[in-house]
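Teaching assistant here, posting this on the class forum so everyone can see the example we discussed in section. The complex has two components, and the goal was to see what a joint structure prediction looks like when all of them are supplied at once.
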Amino acid sequence: MVLSVRRRIADIARAEPDRTALIGFDAHLCEQVLSWRDFADRVTDTADALRAALNRPGPAATALDPSTRSCAVVQAGNTVPAAIGIAAALTAEVPVFPLNPATPTAERDALLRLLGRRFAHGYLIDAQLRPQRIDLPAGACGSGQSGSVAYLLATGASTGIPKISARPGPLRYDPAWTPSLVIRQTGWRTAQRQLIVGPLYHAAPFTAFLDAMLDCNTVVLQTFFAPRWTAELMCRYAIEWLQLTPTHMREILRRPDLDPAGFPSLRAMLHTAARCDADTKRGWIELLGPDRVYELYGATEGVGVTLVRGDEWLARPGTVGRGFLTQIRILDDTGTPVPPGKTGTVFMRTPQRVGRSDYVSDQAIRTTSDGFATVGDHGRLDRDGYLYLEPRDHDTINVGGEKVNPDEVEAALRDHPAVVDAVAVAVPHGTLGSVVGAHVMLHPGASVRRAELAAHCGRRLAGYKIPKHFTFVDQIPRSAAGKIQRWRLTPHHENGATPP
Amino acid sequence: MVTLPEISKVLSAHPAVRRAEVAIVRHDGRDVAIAAAEPSEYVSGPILRNYVRKELGNDTELAGVLIVEHMPMADGVVDVECLTSAVAEGRCILFEDPRDDVERRVAEIWSAQMDVGSVGVNDDFLELGGDSLSVLGIIAAIETEFGRSLDVYEFMNAASVRRLAEILR
């Protein structure tokens, strides 16, 4: 039986009024608990307010335009009001865009312009849950983009060009689909207790929140990431399922007080999005045991997914798993399939073609005439169909014709006791074209000489892979998904701070 | 007897097809009717083949539909050489009936679960229009019928009635 969001929330609230729906924290980190009854009431009120705002007559010119359409923008920090705002827009069946509240003005304007290509009006839902009309700069109107939208998400954080992907709507609850089959393979259970660590304006935590809400979960929203707090929340609320990024995973593993017996309630930890380095992966498999660690590789665009459990990964280190309800084909540059073991572009095909998101901005997916699609990742399959990804073309550093995988350099750097995090980038070089440069973040109070870091790398890497320039930074720019925002790192190194 | 122009006329009228041509090609020592279709949106060969069979009857001797980006032409008519090599290289799946009881039972399950009129034993599950729901339905029905449980990976790796029947045999 397929239900609207409004109906589903009402049903849960009627059946389990006193069960906890949502736990969040206010600005003073005081706990806020909402029962399903309270949650449903506040969502309904906000949805009604949004509908009322939409129906208020606007300027004559737009009111007469039958194609006038509106969207809701929610300041989507991990707060109780943000969660209610998102749920309310979905209940009102108004397309919702979760906005990073810390988006710099220029990026925010670019995103609103993208929304303006599709929608005439925007309504900002603030922390007081009052919908307020905002101006969307009118863009070149995409007349070809019809059909209703459930939600929109900003993507492309690792390339620096903002894009918005739209998910066809309206969102519905279908017991057979909510959550999707692949998520249900990762230890997910109806009415579980879930901790959401990543920000709601990012795809993975956002969709996990929608599934949680429609599948009667108790959701704990962590306001911001702090590794010790995450571990504490997992314990305190007996969390059963959570999703993390490799950055979260790395930082939690570094906690000296981490107790391997500390998460008895946890059924699974799923990580997605950014690539995870082997040491971090092994650390988590040791921490939780191989059958509680899951990794999912799949594009936001719904091209296809692969899934791998810890035990499979231990047998094939580095794999992102087998296609789940997904056929994988590796094609060379001429579009011809290549045999197992050979690297090429990863194309995938999945039944969810109808639900595939489209881009409000430029098309980023390439498709074949027989329905395979790619987001441009490179990789290879082994004989059993396990996929291994190669670094993206634009990330590979070309040192005089030698290809350097930045992941390998970064892993070597992170292996140094003084280093918290590191990014390898290409630095222009007169004769070699480029050499490897490294942005390095040290532990507070730690200090290390550049020569020592170079020597440390020299014991692990071939000569051309050793960074020739080191920049010490306070923070590695990463997107909410944990992907390194290489574009925020200039190819030059003169703006680096000196080590303490 | 349905003629080739009738088939191409029906195909060209399909909403996802911009242009279609039909020709007889020689394959495995016999003559088969093959269509080439230039789609305007995503559509698969088996779906178009079944559409023709539905419109013109199941005895329509259209063996397969090749999806092409641009209609291959030679001397003003569709390039038969091009269609012949597509069939020989397996780029155009030909309709084939089940050859034994296991294949027949599997094909019947597919047909019922996906609500597809005719299932060829080499047809690809996704190209026939299968979705997550039909995967679950087929896996459950196979468990009942053959007493063997399948997981989603096994099923998707097999992807055709013939390869699935090999696992079940």
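For the discussion questions: The mean pLDDT of chain B is 92. The helical segments of chain B are 4-12, 45-56, 80-88, 101-114, 132-146, 152-158, 161-168. Think about how each of these relates to the inputs above.
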